[in-house]
Design brief:
Blueprint (H helix, E strand, L loop, with lengths): L6 H26 L5 H8 L3 H37 L2 H5 L5 H11 L6 H19 L8 H18 L4
Helix pairs in contact: 1-3, 6-7
Amino acid sequence: HGQQLAPGVESAIFGFLAALSSQLYADTIYCYTNFGKETKRVETRTRKLTAWASLYTTKCLNAAVLFGVYESVRIPVSQSIIAWFSGGVDSCLGSKDFQLCVDTYALSNPPSPTQEAEIRAFITTIVSLWDRLQTPDGLEGAQEFVRSCAVQFYSLVAQGSFF
């Protein structure tokens, strides 16, 4: 009734369901069609009940653990990385409330690409577009490259790199 699950538990459930549906789909194809390798079709069609249970249990639990652990550690690890790269750890050493200082510093000084990195990415995109246009079917995909150039140019202008 409106209760939210912890992110790790929710992701574990989704991982379990993803592995279950994937395995069901693969087994259905191998059992009821002639797609895939002959050895895989024969193995699937002759699998014993214990082998079915073992396969599904192993795959589903592995996926649940993988998704759950990933989501559980993603946020704390991301916050630690941001704290280091924003300069918060260096600036807050010796502070009375270190964690509050680091959190405030990370919020006030989020790491962002340098102007040099933005210019380098823009030039790389332009060169890539130029190379693409030199090929026989160069106009294919050119629209996406032009869009990416426009986005990167806008980013440069927004950061004040050109003006």
